[in-house]
Each structure stands twice: as C-alpha cells, then as structure tokens.
Amino acid sequence: MINKDFFLALDALEKEKKIEQQQFIEALQTGIEVAYRKENGITKAVTVTLNPQRSEIKIYAYQTVVEEVTEEKQISLEDAKKIKNSYKVGDIVKEEISPKLFSRIAAQTAKQVIIQRNNEIQKELIKDEMNNKEGEIVKGIVRRVENDTVYLEMAGTQLEGVMLPSEQIRGERYNVNDVINVYVKSVRTNQRGATQVMVSRASNGFVKKLFEMEVPEIKANLVNIKRIVREAGYRTKMAVYAEDSSIDAVGSCIGQKGMRINSVVQELNGEKIDIIGYSQDMGEYISRALSPAKVIAVMLNPEEKSAKAIVEDDKLSLAIGKSGQNVRLAAKLTEWKIDVKPFSSLAGSDINNIGE
C-alpha cells in the first residue's frame, strides 16, 4: 500500500503533537487487530512495517503454529498444513493484509481505535509535560469559579487547573477569562480519571519562584533563600544569604530603587515583603526577623529555643504587628519562640545584662 499523504501526516503528528512514529504504529497495529477480529471473527497478531523512502506501508497478520491451540493468535499444525504442507510447530503463518480485505465498517473500527489511542498518547504527553513543571510558575485562564474554588485551563494544554480556597491570596477576586500566574503544586488524577493540576498563589513556593525570576543572583545561586514564611495577602518574610561576602544578598533582592521587590509585590497585589539577611548569630537573626521594628537587644534561652526581644516602648506595636502577625512570622522564620517586651518593662538586673 503506497500512500504519501500518510507519511506526511505521520511527520506532522511527530512534529506538532510530539507523538513518536513508533507510538502511532503501535496504535495502528492495535486498531487493525480489532478491525480484523470484527471482520473475520478471529484474532491474529498484526505487525505494520513502514518504508518512508518508498512511501510504502505493509500490514501483516500472523499466527504461530502449535500442536494444540491455547490462544487465538495461534494456529494448529493440522490447520497450518492445509495452507502449506511444509509448515511445522513454531513456524509463523503470515499473510499480507490488503486494504481491500476490510469492509467500510471494519475500517471505521480501526480508525476509531487509532484515534482513541492517539488521544490517550496526547494526554499522557501533556500530563508528563505538566509533571515536569511541578514547582514552576505557569499561566492559567480562569474558566469558572464554584464554591470559591477556581478552575483554570492551563495555558497551552487541555488540562484543568484547580486552585482551592486555601491556595488563593486573601482578598483576590478571580473572574472568568482572567489570565493569572499560578504555582504548580502537583498533578493528580481525579475520581473520573481526568488529569487535574493542583495550583496555588498562596504557597511559599510561589514567592520563591517569583524572586528567582526577578533576581538573577538567586537563579545563579549567588544568593540563596534560606527560608520563607508567609500569611498570603498580608505579609511575607524571606531570609537570604550569600556565601560571597562581597554580594549584598538583601540589596540584590530589593533591586535598584526597589524595582525587583516591587515587581513581586505587584504580582502579589500589594502583599508586604520583608527581606531578612540570614545570620548564624541567633540574636542578630531574631533582631532582623522582627523588621520593620528596630530591636534594642535580644536575650536568648538556647535550651528552650526562646528569646526575649527588647524594643523601644513606642515601637512595641510595630514589633508585634497587627494581631501579632509580625512576631508570629518572625518566630516561624527563626524557628524560635519570641517574646517582645518594651524597654520600660525591664528590671534593673535585665538592663544591666543588656549593657554587658
């Protein structure tokens, strides 16, 4: 069977759909096997050979010669000898299948099987591609919002993205056809067997990837992100450091005139971001973590991993933050319990300790 159009289509499948020729051939073989059974009432193994140089396709059906038939793709020695007397056990009885051997119905069956298998291959390829994007930021188009859950079409795919209420930035509103950046957390198969991409805008990973995109020093591993803590929609604290002391880790993240950090804040719709310089000196680290408040002193209790941070009386509310948010995030960032105290609350012995 010579068909130049077939080979042109095969090339197009490989280039446009990224379906390898071998995968298509396997689908073709399966489709023809199903059609052969439908047409003849029996199953034979089918192999397809392609000769692109001659634009030639050859399809063969075959059965293995056995003493006693135990499966449909076998033929008994007695029946084989009726075809050709020289056949013996272990030989392959092969016949070339001409398109003329198939009725219109059988050909349609083969076509349906091939299309179905190719669709499955396409979905598997897209799923694999999205699996490779776990931990990355991609674009999604909002298609519907149901019970506060946002359903998106992942750009460039036919996959459905799901953003649960807990993964949304508090205060954001999502409208149908909005194009938004989302962080890929995982790819899963739902109860109906469909592939869904679980996405987020509230995760720490979203902030981390945004800074990687904005700060070349982070992407080049010259500046490292030690830890991120976040209450999405309100405030993020991110600790950074650089092995090379000549590199200003905090300044690199802020950028000239705040350009880099402002780009991230804009994507997060105004969420406050504190960039903290990481320090192995825990007192210094805790003091920085309480930014934007300035700390007079920090008294550490290493056994309990707790600390008392002293601030000016008029800076107490700033250090604690609204509803305790600033000190709460600082504690999560440093992984120490932090108690913020005003300077006026100290006893004389505590004041002397600060001075030492």
In brief:
This protein has twelve helices and 15 strands.
Keywords:
alpha/beta, four-stranded mixed sheet, 356 residues, single chain, GMP Synthetase, Chain A, domain 3, OB fold (Dihydrolipoamide Acetyltransferase, E2P), 36% helix, 29% strand
What can you see in these coordinates?
The protein has 356 residues and is an alpha/beta fold. It folds into three domains: 4-130, 2-Layer Sandwich (N Utilization Substance Protein A, Chain:P, domain 4); 133-200, Beta Barrel (OB fold (Dihydrolipoamide Acetyltransferase, E2P)); 289-356, GMP Synthetase, Chain A, domain 3 (2-Layer Sandwich). It contains twelve helices and 15 strands. It has helices at 4-16, 21-40, 77-83, 104-131, 204-214, 216-219, 249-254, 259-267, 282-289, 316-320, 325-334, 348-355, and strands spanning 45-51, 56-66, 74-76, 92-96, 137-146, 149-154, 160-163, 179-189, 195-200, 224-231, 235-241, 272-277, 295-301, 306-311, 337-342. Helix 2 runs antiparallel to helix 4 (104-131), helix 5 runs antiparallel to helix 8 and helix 9 (282-289) runs antiparallel to helix 11 (325-334). It starts with a helix and ends with a helix. The mean pLDDT is 84.
